[in-house]
Amino acid sequence: MQRFLALSFVLLLLTACAPQPTGPQSLTVMTHDSFAATDSVIHAFEQANNAKVSFIKSGDAGAALNKAILTKSAPLADVFYGVDNTFLARALSAGIFEAYDSPALSMIPREFQLDSTDQALPVDYGDVCINYDKGYFAEHNLTVPARLEDLTQPAYKRLLVTENPASSSPGLAFLLATIKHFGDPGYLGFWGELHRNGLQVVDGWETAYYTNFSGSSGRGAQPMVVSYATSPAAEVMFATAPLQDSPTASIIGPDMCFRQVEFVGILKGTAHRSLARKFVDFMLGAEFQADMPAQMFVYPVVPAITLPDAFIKYSQIPSQPAMLSPDEIARNRDSWIEAWTNAVLH
Hints:
Blueprint: H1 2-17, E1 25-31, H2 39-49, E2 51-57, H3 61-70, E3 79-84, H4 88-94, E4 97-98, E5 121-133, H5 134-139, E6 160-163, H6 169-182, H7 186-196, E7 200-202, H8 205-212, H9 214-217, E8 224-228, H10 231-237, E9 248-251, E10 258-267, H11 273-283, H12 286-296, E11 299-300, H13 309-314, H14 326-344
Parallel strand pairs: 1-2, 1-3, 6-7, 6-8
Antiparallel strand pairs: 3-10, 4-10, 5-8, 5-9, 5-10, 5-11
Helix pairs in contact: 6-7, 7-14
């Protein structure tokens, strides 16, 4: 009996000391509502890291950032994706991120690395441009405007719809493009001329694109809309019947498009720092970068990624996009929008 008890004790001791199987580690990622990724791509990360990734979609980019800032003393997530260069300075001044010098940054051009502290790492970029209805312009034998200044000409009266910059990300981006081109306060004179030339303003992109724009629904009154340089590719990729060509195209003259860059960062206070860093590396890696274009209609920041055929055929990258520094945007955003509102809506 004593020998049996001794043996049992040894077996219990060995069992207690042996490595115990553990379940997957949890990682929570806060994003804006437009985030999308292929399930199999996320699953590959989970399998490789014995992890379970959950996503908290938190409104548009501004609303999501507000949520992250308001909860920074008790973070709701480990990682935040979706702050862009129009909100970057605000995110950094709020101190919500911790720095991470990812080895993947070596593959990303310096032009996208707008945060020298490596708290916010670039993931993707896209250009907000005016899209036009190719059929309308051909039918009316109308020349496509090549410069912002052209939009104030009588030939384009009541032909442009844009979004309110106070309520819309593309609307704000287009406003910033005009500020870059005309300067402050020169941009206000341009917007005043646009207003007198019949400019239409709506609250959001969906209304502008699917109700006002003739190139998408075919029923709208405006053949020009502030949208994205990838929208012509989306028209083909989401067409209910196969298309031989996109019905729309982008106007990509100097300063006519504003470049948006989106970032990811590790939220301070994470209890899963090692896994959060691996997820950031994953977002900057080839598999996720290749998945993004068809999921979110943005361009990967890693140059070697193969793009969908529709991007190559129907989307154009402007050679001279408008850009303003995140600090300048942060200092002036509210006053620029207020001045725009007084010039255009009152």
